[in-house]
Amino acid sequence: MTSKIIWLVAILLVATGPASAQLAASSDEPVDITGDTAEFFDSRAVWTGHVRVVQAEAILTAERLEAQLSEEGAFQSITAIGSVRYSNGKEAITGERAIFDDAARTITILDNVIVTQGKQVMSAGKVTYWVDTGKVRFAPEAGKRIRGIFYTKSDDQS
Q1: Beta carbons within 8 Å of 141's beta carbon, 6+ residues apart
Q2: Which 8-state DSSP code applies to residue 27?
Q3: Which residue, 84, 77, 48, 50, is CA-closest to 65?
Q4: pLDDT, tens only, 127-158
Q5: Could you give the angle at the alpha carbon of 25 between the alpha carbons of 131 and 11, nearest 5°?
Q6: Residue 139: its pLDDT value, please?
Q7: Under a CB-based contact definition with an 8 Å cutoff, are residues 122 and 134 in contact?
Q8: Top-level class of domain 2-157
Q9: pLDDT at position 77
């Protein structure tokens, strides 16, 4: 019984340790993750069911979230799966899967990706978003092209 309590305390320390991942550019705000269930084992954490990650103005939602943790409990990478949506107050990006890489400071969204910024809309098979700079790189799905709909100033006046 004592070993189970020690194991549970160790898991809670990892789960509540420093979360250095920054989904919001230059933010020291805490990362708040909610979901229907959560499991912690080895250096991984998995949340399932209506997962929502919030840091400052950045919000990431998905059906499942898998996080790889460092020995200190910081997030090294996060993979979101199923109905993924990332927004930061300026852009919103949706897709079926997303991979956040803390070292590269990127979020790569895959499968039926749609990016909206105001009224502007673009679609692609894969989008890489640099969290700190806002740079976005679009790549098409195999056999398809990237599509964008842009409104001109005269379109806004009508």
Answers
A1: 124, 125, 126
A2: -
A3: 48
A4: 998 888 888 899 998 899 999 999 887 655 55
A5: 90
A6: 94
A7: no
A8: mainly beta
A9: 84
